[in-house]
Amino acid sequence: MLIGIIAVAGAATLLGIMPSMQKTLLVNGLPMNSLMFFTNLTISLVCLIMARLKGRSLKASRIQLIQALIMGASGMMFTALLLNTSYLYLPVGTAIMLNFLYPTVVCIVMGTVFREGFTKLQVAAIVVSITGMAFLTGAGGKMPLIGIVTAIASSLTYGGYLVANEKGPANQLPIEAKLFYVSLPGTVIFAVLSAATGTLQGPGRGLKRLGPPDWRIRTFHGKRILPHDVWGQQAWRVHGCICLHAGTHCQRGVRNHLV
Predict the structure, then answer these.
(1) I need a labelling partner for 236 at 20 to 30 A (CA). Which of 13, 66, 131, 166 fits?
(2) Cα 84 from Cα 27, distance rounded (Å)
(3) Spatial CA neighbour of 77 closest among 182, 224, 162, 234
(4) Rg of the chain taking only CA atoms, in angstroms
(5) Would you give the distance in Å from CA 107 to the centre of its chain?
């Protein structure tokens, strides 16, 4: 039980950190194809190493392999692609909250398609979840529709992935083998796309452009803005375009305060 709680807490922490890192890379010039390739490649390599260290076999039956690859292409890969796309139009926090409709998606699918039914608490939770998201997307009425659509679509694809992850023969594979095959489609597809489109670029190239910290106070519409952890002129220019939201959304992973 304790190990499970620690694992969930660690996963939640990493899930909260990763979007800000991904958005930082995207807004600083790393192509989407490269980001998706390196993300999936990292998962594939880690799972391969873990399977080797634990002595787990990667052997899978044909039906298990087919299900795992379909889960990877339709669930994991498209979810990451849609979510990363939404980061370009929405604040990271808003995009993640819209993506967190996936528990509602899973609950509805399990209750209807698999006829598990609904308890009163589940119905209340579904209503509150959908209502909350409706209020969130309607805040100010200025959120780009494409960002909202891609974030919500990512919740649908991830919800489908979780359902498939629980139902079907692929669930019988060791976790390392299953995640290896699930990440494989994204690794291969985005490797080919990156090479074909000339967008294969290492993350280090974008990070080198950020330079040393810039602690200077800037003026925006007559108010002084104190940047925290702003890196270099280019990072400031990237963030400067969204200073209007500085006091509310804290976009681009950089905190600003009006002083």
Answers:
(1) 13
(2) 11
(3) 182
(4) 21
(5) 21
Mean local confidence (pLDDT), 162-166: 87
Q: How far is CA 139 from CA 10, 96, 134, 177, 253, in A?
A: 31, 15, 9, 43, 21
Q: Which two tokens stand for residue 92?
A: 């990271």
Question: In the structure encoding, which two tokens stand for residue 13, read together?
Answer: 């922490």
**Residue 37 near residue 191, CB atoms below 8 Å:** yes
CA atoms within 13 A on the CB side of 249: 22
Greatest pairwise CA separation for the chain in angstroms: 66
Q: Quick one: tokens of 79?
A: 């979810």
Question: Are the C-beta atoms of 229 and 254 separated by less than 8 Å?
Answer: yes
Gap between the Cα atoms of 256 and 198, Å rounded: 35
Dihedral sign for Cα atoms in the order 128, 132, 133, 135: positive
Give the integer Cα–Cα distance in Å for 77 and 195. 18
Alpha-carbon gap, residue 91 to 20, rounded angstroms: 9
Q: In this structure, are residues 239 and 80 in contact, taking their beta carbons and an 8 Å threshold?
A: no
Q: Token pair 């600003």 is at which residue?
A: 256
Which pLDDT belongs to residue 249? 38
Q: Do residues 23 and 30 make contact, with C-beta atoms less than 8 angstroms apart?
A: no
Phi-psi category of 143—alpha, beta or left, where left has phi over 0 and alpha has psi -120 to 50?
A: beta
Q: Is a pLDDT exceeding 90 seen at residue 220?
A: no
Q: What is the pLDDT of residue 141?
A: 59
